[in-house]
Amino acid sequence: MGMLIEGRWESDDDKLVGEDGTLQRPESAFRNWITPDGAPGPTGEGGFAAEPGRYHLYVARACPWAHRATLFRELKGLQTMIGLSITHWLMADDGWTFANGPGVIPDPLHGAETVWQLYVRADPRYTGRVTVPVLWDTQRETIVSNESADIIRMFNSAFDGVGATSGDFAPAALIDEIDALNDRIYDGLNNGVYKAGFATSQSAYDEAVRGVFDTLDWLESHLSGRTWLCGDVQTEADWRLFTTLLRFDAVYHGHFKCNLRQLRDYPVLLAYAQRLYAAPAVAPTVDFDHISRHYYQSHRQINPTGIVPAGPDPVFPGAV
Ligand SMILES: N[C@@H](CCC(=O)N[C@@H](CS)C(=O)NCC(=O)O)C(=O)O
């Protein structure tokens, strides 16, 4: 892995873990918002109006945070309005790259070879991690946002006036409940699996794994007798949970050592995740080959041999 220091790419191996062995996830650096008329959003500056053809999304198929953004591009029918590039699954010495490989879609705008080159183009003195997703503005030649939680909120409504598919995944009447669910699920599960996987002390791992399974146990009972997490409608909270559940048995159970139980041991959660997976346009956003290879081969501090295990059998019918 590596990161940018004053616009220069440097190798970092463990700058993400603090002295107590706990994962320290830095704040995303670009926090502007696309809005219908270019007015400023909740953070960052204004000037990013919702215009078809103006923005481009860079993602990795492996990454659960980037997956949220590709899902919302599909759910809101933004495929012809917002372009898409897909990185190679391997995140090694150069970080995310657009090296040739199955499923890779290179950068059509600048021919970037790596994602860090995009960050330097946006800010020649950028210091920080180089993460996906990246939402790029072709007009101002900069990054609008590299925070998936914000990107899906803007995709949810910003383009409604210029032809997006109708549907509100964050209705005002439910927003407080959605935010509370998101916070709990982020801390215990979405980020919890990463805290377990990247822990370098037993106590940090123990605490994270406890949080992961407390959250899964709670979700199993919360979803009993319900179709969706919040109210009786499908919301953003469901999709944010989905991208972690999808990867659970394939990578978090083995590679991140979240191995008390698998998703398949939770009948209600499994049926719920399979229901989301079966929604139109979801399956094409899923690439288990990218997912398994990315985790097992990129994090060599966790899996030094880079061996990708043969199992477990997939629980998402037809998934490849
Ligand atoms: N808060 C960010 C986190 C994104 C993130 O951590 N992405 C990972 C891939 S799963 C990444 O690109 N990591 C590269 C690095 O940290 O160097 C978001 O949700 O958008």
Automatic annotation (TrEMBL):
UniProt name for this protein: Glutathione S-transferase
Pfam families assigned to the protein according to its UniProt record, in alphabetical order: GST_C_2, GST_N_2
Native source species: Luteimonas terrae
The GST C-terminal domain, residue ranges: 171-298
Coiled-coil blocks: none
InterPro entries: Glutathione-S-Trfase_C-like, Glutathione-S-Trfase_C_sf, Glutathione_S-Trfase, Glutathione_S-Trfase_N, GST_Omega-like_C, GST_Omega/GSH, Thioredoxin-like_sf
SUPFAM superfamilies: GST C-terminal domain-like (SSF47616), Thioredoxin-like (SSF52833)
